[in-house]
Amino acid sequence: MGQDDRVTDRYPDEPAAEPPAAYAAEPEIEPIVERAAAQGPTEDLAHDPAEMRAHYRAEGLDASSLAAVPMEQFARWFEQAAQAAVAGMIYEPNAMVVSTADADGLLSSRTVLMKGYDAQGFVFYTNYESRKARDLAVNPHISLLFPWHPMARQVIVTGTAHRTGREETTAYFRTRPHGSRLGAWASAQSSVIASRAELDTAYEQLSARYPEGSEVPVPPNWGGFRVTPRTVEFWQGRENRLHDRLRYVAEPDGAWRVERLSP
Question: Does Oxidoreductase show up as a keyword for this record (predicted)?
Answer without folding.
Answer: yes
